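thought: fold this chain, then report.
action: predict
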Amino acid sequence: MFQSLSDRLTKVVGKLTGRGRITEDNVRTTVRQIRMALLEADVALPVAKALVDRVLERALGEEVAASLNPGQVFVKIVNDELVTVLGGTVSPLAARGRPGVVLLVGLQGAGKTTTAAKIAELLGKRDRDRVCLVSTDIYRPAAREQLATLAEQLSVRCLVPDSDDPVAIATEALATARHEGFRWLIVDTAGRLHVDAELMAEVASIYSAVDPDETLFVVDAMAGQDAVNSARVFHDRLALTGAVLTKADGDARGGVALSVREVTGVPIRLLGTGERLDALEPFVPERMASRILGMGDVVGLVETVERAVDRDQAERMAAKVKRGRALSLEDFRTQLEQIQSMGGLAGLVDKLPGVPAGALAQANVDERQIRHQIALIDSMTPGERRNPSVIDGSRKRRIAAGAGSSVQAVNRLLKQHKTLAKTMKRAARAGGLERLLAGGIGGAPGRRGRMGR
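observation:
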């Protein structure tokens, strides 16, 4: 998300960075280009206009004129205004009593059911017995079964009241959650259009029945401005407390994220960054603004690594290499999985400061190779994974056939594993092995054409 907008804004504001003096013409030209970049990113026209007007007013004032480095001050102004548009400081989910009720509403296909499970994972990290889920969607086939399946994967409770009335389902679920002492009740609702009077009346009745602590509008990052208008109508009817932006790992232009707060007054609270049930994180406007302007998100990167890396496993691997034992393909697979759990290479590169958006695409790196490499390792026998030196020509052909790949791909995987093993041995001798492993170095895939398909 924001790749195109980030490319444009980074280039635009970069022209003023480092200048000892900027003129009014420089500022007006730059602000006009910022406005065009925002509109091309599908930001609502009133939002784009308000943002650039504030930037222009501040940039032509004493704040820039009196600065020793006006170019950098201008960039700070743009960053500050992006933070304001994105919502400023956002608070975590909170509850007035027990259970705290989180009600999810939104349009069809926005990802409410998966988001309900992700929120359960987020709230239940310390104690999964504290969280329960319930679906009031009686319209979409197997909607309640889907939520029950996701709850089972998370080992959390999914309540299934014996009723076909959405309001009765929600009411009974709340009574059960209170009786059994749950800390949180997450209520999933059916997708509905804001112009559907009957369904809007239904969700308003559910809202009144459960009196939620948090009412979150789930919005697809790839949706157009109509989704923002829908959020405004939902807010007028239900008093939303925030929004959840889903599918932010896709190629969305990001206009919804930059519009929803300004248009509705409702901040984005959570950000869905992938398909995994742990791919949900708090939305922090300051970090997102920095990423849009190509300044990275170091804090977010550190948090991502800390969530994904198993410290005990890293220490065991470090001790293994220090004792002179070779790094196995099983260890190599673990590193590859860590990269995947951190959002892939794209998710990591996006948070690195000074790395322009789209750098991964320009480097022609194919992230599918991580999955292909894992498939090749899975096609091996346990003995081959522990001792790759036994893999001869006939074994390579069998491994390639089992993974639907080629012998050349097997050769590249073995070569990459060998290189990584040597790197870790050198790091062990230098005393930096733990840091190397904690970074989830894995076997970052190479360029297309060299790594195979």
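thought: worth noting. Residues 3-86 form a domain with the Four Helix Bundle (Hemerythrin (Met), subunit A) fold (CATH 1.20.120.140).
final: tokens above.
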